[in-house]
């Protein structure tokens, strides 16, 4: 049986697992451009590192969520926090 719509199936709940499989920063940038950072970000699993451009609205929202998580769970859970410019 041939399913023509299989390539259009999406697993929205597990989009964030895609980013854990990416090995190179260029891949992460391409994924964020393709899907959007809000679709890739899961506040229940915020593992990993983030380079946010706060001039972009979506990335401001992710930064706010990360800040709220740090406030609620403690800043000690976050390491190597840097602000560039």
Explain what this protein looks like in three dimensions.
Helices cover 46% and strands 0% of the residues. Residues 1-6 have low confidence and may be disordered. The chain has one domain (6-77). It has 85 residues and is mainly alpha-helical.
- The assembly state of the depicted protein chains is single chain
Low-confidence stretches: 1-6
- The percent range for helix content is 40-55%
Integer average pLDDT = 76
The tally of domains stands at 1
Overall geometry comes to: globular
Class per helix and strand makeup = mainly alpha
Structure summarized in a few sentences:
The protein is 46% helix and 0% strand.
Key features of this structure:
85 residues; single chain; disordered N terminus; mainly alpha
Task: Indicate the topology.
Blueprint (H helix, E strand, L loop, with lengths): L14 H7 L3 H11 L1 H4 L16 H17 L12
